[in-house]
Backbone:
């Protein structure tokens, strides 16, 4: 009988965006990347789109997409981020699915995912319905086909969830082996108990549902999946393939599907180079005929279920107690803080359940004034989330509206629907997964609740709901003394994060002193239109006064604001923003402040700001995090230049003394080494930022650092070097016929071998591989065979490939 193999990767990242800005702000813990999405993309999502396959000599013989040979699901919220911030990887994922359709009898590798990763058995029927519909529609928009299967968050399941999946046309889902209760052959009456993970995972099972519908369930191989995720099986691609082969048995009489499932991030993020082990094993398995690679849809078409199954309800893959990890102190945690408890989980969920129910009643009562069928309107709101263009929003509203809708009504409708969106986002599973209430994932879900409450207050002008919510949230207590309880955390982290129109205006006002804005500028999910603006300078001091219209691209609400902001140098900044109250008052304020600035009466300006804007005052602290960091770095750079001047003087004027002390075997004062470390790291980073690299100068700096045993700042330097060589390799891609560029790149790469750093060459190697596979022979044919230039170019191209660790005989036919 034939043997089939299907490896499934569940690709997902916890949502990290600021709920008020709809974007991820800078996360220092992800350094040198902007945020964790960007970092995990570099470590996992990108490498799996172009993974290296090595020969026995550890040289690259092929680069292939794991996505084209994996079964996979991607979180919709993650895909929406990739679409904007890593568009090439996003396209690679979609293209891989198209390729798999060609290879797998018309069945794509991609399956859908519950929209925002909430725990389905803990959700009400209405939220289950919306989550499935949103997951399907998001999938259809991106992959241009209907999903055959759907991944359940944490594989958490109950019968009602399966009913919703089947009702909406989903053919199959994946569960852990311990989620199977009993099985029997179709058409027979005797059930066999397979609890405690005794189900055979090498076939498909039919699950009959109370409604008369049914759905197919695949149970993945538990021990091998566990080994991949936690037992370092990915340290060897061949060992991985051999272990996969142990999942088959000659004793079985059917065409087996050996299938495993893990977090997709296992392949590269959790286990470095895990993508390469995966790529090698798939290539090895296919090349040796060990098994036939397939996906669940193809296998199901060829081998429909011959057995049926009953599941263990309210179970999941990551909690041995069922689904208690997301509702109680069950004992499941990361293990990092064994003295802590998770008693906070239950009151947190109770508070959010109460808030959800309160918001649902208010939503239904209010929106029915404008729209027919409030819950169908919510189900189809995903069409707006996927396309927020004005024409599309009006098309959506027209579909459900009871009567002609005015612009002000559109704002109310969108706010009510956004309340519902955030009321589901606040159930993202990560909020309960980790050890303490104060964790960033839990703060994130509480922020979604805060955003829902803010929108509700905007609609109803009612502050009582937030007060009641905080009373309930206070019952959830942190393990950390200084964080106390959920209500304290709300005041500490959520309240300060809230953004209103004045906050957007303050950001615009302050940042406009440091950069020139167009007449209309986008600031995250807001548009700011400049109606009047004047900026003046005097030495290191500057001031701006203006009038702007701020509009939300999410709710369509707009507000006209006036502002004044004064910068007195460094980080000393004072400003005010409030709603525009009239042209006469605005002009009076503007004239008054301009006159004071011209007179150099800066203290008068500060008093005027206090007088005109009263409590609506802002400073550099009120900027959104990325812009705040950018402006502070401008100020810090001047300070660092002063440091550099001092340290350079110390180092260069004492180098002879340092040499003498070394030769005399005397200890060199630590201050000398501090100066040397600062200067040499600064110099080498600056050298790699130059347009034209001075290779002898870089070699000199490296040798000097080695002489004094000075550590190079590896994280910063690697990132700078990588960006530089990727830029140079892109130049080669644009003009590959230029031999001198190939030789220069080769020299740079040889130079890098002398630097004690491991440079990520992923992008550089991808470009070279693309040229070798797609353009090498065409480029060679453009040169005259008898021309020395042709031979020189071919040699330079091959030598560069050698330096980049390619097996030229495998990727260039005439190597």
Residues:
């Amino acid at each position: 009988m034939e043997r089939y193999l299907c490896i499934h990767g569940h690709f997902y990242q916890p949502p990290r965006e600021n709920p008020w800005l709809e974007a991820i702000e800078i996360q220092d813990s992800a350094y040198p990347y902007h945020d964790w999405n960007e970092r995990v993309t570099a470590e996992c999502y990108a490498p799996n789109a172009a993974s290296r396959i090595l020969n026995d000599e550890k040289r690259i013989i092929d680069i292939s997409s794991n996505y084209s040979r994996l079964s996979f699901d991607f979180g919709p919220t993650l895909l929406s981020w990739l679409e904007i911030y890593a568009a090439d990887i996003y396209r690679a994922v979609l293209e891989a699915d198209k390729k798999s359709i060609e290879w797998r009898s018309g069945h794509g590798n991609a399956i859908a995912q519950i929209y925002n990763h909430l725990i389905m058995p803990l959700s009400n029927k209405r939220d289950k319905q919306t989550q499935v519909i949103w997951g399907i529609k998001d999938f259809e928009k991106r992959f241009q086909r209907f999903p055959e299967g759907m991944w359940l968050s944490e594989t958490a399941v109950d019968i009602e969830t399966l009913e919703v999946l089947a009702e909406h046309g989903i053919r199959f889902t994946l569960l852990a082996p311990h989620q199977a209760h009993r099985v029997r052959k179709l058409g027979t009456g005797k059930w066999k108990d397979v609890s405690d993970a005794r189900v055979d995972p090498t076939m498909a099972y039919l699950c009959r549902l109370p409604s008369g519908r049914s759905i197919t369930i695949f149970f993945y191989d538990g021990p091998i999946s566990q080994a991949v995720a936690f037992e370092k099986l990915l340290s060897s691609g061949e060992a991985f393939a051999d272990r996969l082969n142990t999942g088959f048995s000659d004793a079985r009489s059917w065409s087996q599907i050996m299938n495993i499932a893990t977090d997709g991030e296992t392949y590269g993020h959790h286990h470095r180079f895990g993508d390469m082990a995966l790529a090698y094993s798939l290539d090895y398995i296919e090349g040796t005929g060990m098994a036939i690679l397939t996906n669940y849809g193809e296998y199901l078409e060829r081998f429909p279920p011959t057995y049926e199954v009953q599941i263990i309800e309210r179970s999941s893959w990551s909690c041995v107690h069922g689904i208690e990890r997301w509702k109680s102190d069950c004992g499941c945690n990361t293990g990092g803080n064994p003295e802590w408890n998770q008693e906070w989980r239950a009151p947190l969920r109770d508070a959010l359940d109460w808030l959800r129910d309160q918001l649902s009643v208010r939503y239904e009562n209010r929106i029915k004034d404008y729209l027919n069928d409030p819950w169908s309107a919510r189900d189809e709101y995903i069409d707006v989330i996927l396309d927020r263009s004005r024409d599309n929003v009006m098309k959506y509203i027209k579909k459900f509206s009871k009567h002609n809708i005015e612009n002000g009504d559109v704002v109310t409708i969108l706010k009510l629907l956004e309340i519902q969106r955030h009321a589901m986002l606040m159930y993202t599973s990560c909020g309960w997964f980790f050890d303490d209430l104060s964790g960033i994932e839990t703060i994130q879900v509480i922020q979604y609740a805060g955003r829902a409450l803010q929108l509700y207050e905007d609609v109803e002008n009612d502050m009582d709901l937030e007060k009641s919510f905080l009373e309930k949230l206070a019952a959830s207590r942190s393990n950390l003394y200084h964080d106390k309880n959920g209500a304290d955390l709300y005041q500490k982290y959520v309240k300060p994060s809230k953004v209103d129109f004045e906050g957007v205006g303050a950001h615009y006002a302050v940042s406009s002193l440091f950069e020139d804005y167009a007449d209309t500028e986008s600031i995250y999910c807001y548009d700011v239109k400049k109606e009047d603006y004047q900026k003046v300078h005097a030495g290191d001091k500057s001031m701006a006064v203006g009038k702007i219209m701020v509009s939300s691209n999410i709710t369509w609400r707009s507000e006209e604001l006036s502002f004044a902001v004064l910068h007195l140098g460094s980080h000393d900044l004072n400003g005010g923003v409030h709603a525009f109250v009239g042209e006469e008052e605005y002009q009076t304020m503007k004239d008054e402040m301009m006159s004071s600035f011209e007179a150099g009466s800066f203290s008068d300006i500060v008093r005027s700001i206090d007088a005109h804007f009263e409590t609506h005052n802002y400073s550099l602290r009120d900027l959104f995090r990325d812009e705040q960091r950018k402006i502070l770095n401008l100020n810090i750079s001047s300070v660092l230049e002063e440091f550099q001047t001092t340290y350079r003087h110390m180092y260069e004027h004492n180098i002879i003394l340092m040499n003498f002390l070394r030769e005399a075997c005397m200890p060199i004062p630590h201050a000398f080494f501090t100066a040397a470390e600062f200067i040499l790291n600064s110099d080498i980073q600056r050298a790699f930022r130059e347009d034209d690299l001075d290779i002898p100068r870089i070699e000199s700096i490296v040798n000097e650092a080695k002489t004094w045993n000075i550590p190079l700042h590896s994280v910063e330097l690697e990132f700078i070097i990588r960006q530089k060589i990727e830029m140079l390799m892109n130049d080669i891609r644009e003009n590959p016929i230029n031999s001198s560029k190939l030789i220069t790149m080769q020299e740079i790469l040889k130079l890098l071998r002398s630097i004690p750093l491991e440079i990520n060459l992923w992008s550089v190697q991808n470009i070279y591989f693309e040229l070798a596979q797609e353009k090498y022979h065409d480029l060679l044919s453009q040169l005259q065979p008898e021309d020395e230039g042709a031979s020189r170019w071919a040699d330079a191209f091959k030598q560069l490939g050698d330096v980049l660790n390619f097996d030229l005989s495998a990727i260039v036919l005439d190597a």
Notes: The chain has a mean pLDDT of 94. The first strand starts at residue 3 and ends at 11. Residues 625-652 form the longest helix (28 residues). The chain has 31 helices and 20 strands.
